[in-house]
Design brief:
It contains six helices and eight strands; from the N terminus they run βββααβαβββαααβ. Helix 4 packs across helix 5.
Length: 185
């Protein structure tokens, strides 16, 4: 397949496909998965990949320019990075305390990371992790992210029950979710 890149990750548990607006396709594989299995899996996913590429082509040809808001990228170890991490930690701690007064979900540790592909995550053990750039977002979007991950403590999926939990405090979560896509991590 043209434009296919395969990356191996020691942390990956499953095969994952990412399709980008420029048509590139990146497959991330766990170290234990062989190339034959990857090739077979990609062949099975060809229709889905082509559908995703076509959606990007249509969007590009529609004349609508995708606007994106670039947030600061700070190098680890720098003073600015350390300050941003501490600001994000203080924000997340304060807002988790605020929202969890309503939810009362027993979450584990809180960590702030330099995640390249996500705003936040919730582990199976209920540990919450946020991208340090959360501190650079408008407060309403930061609140949405914090509530989103907090609700994953109870519902580890994006089911209707999960979204009902989010809607308890973020009524316009659909708008917030769309607005968040304008920001680049």
């Amino acid at each position: 397949m043209e434009g296919l890149e395969i990356r191996e990750s020691a942390r990956a548990r499953h095969l994952r496909i990412s399709v980008f607006p420029d048509g590139r396709v990146v497959v991330t594989k766990p170290a234990r998965v062989g190339m034959r299995a990857v090739e077979k899996w990609v062949r099975e996913k060809e229709a889905w990949i082509e559908k995703a590429r076509e959606a990007f082509r249509k969007r590009k040809n529609s004349g609508k320019r995708e606007e994106g808001i670039e947030l600061p990228r700070l190098r680890r170890g720098t003073r600015g990075y350390k300050e941003a991490v501490e600001a994000a930690r203080a924000l997340a701690r304060e807002r988790l305390q605020y929202f969890n007064a309503l939810y009362e979900f027993p979450y584990g540790t809180l960590s702030i990371r330099n995640q390249k592909t996500r705003w936040g995550s919730c582990s199976a053990a209920g540990n919450l992790s946020f991208n340090y750039r959360i501190a650079h977002l408008p407060p309403d979007l930061a609140d949405y992210l914090i509530v989103h991950e907090l609700c994953h403590v109870r519902e580890h999926n994006h089911s209707a029950r999960f979204w009902a939990q989010v809607a308890r405090t973020i009524l316009d979560y659909k708008n917030k979710r769309c607005e968040l896509h304008r920001y680049r991590y």
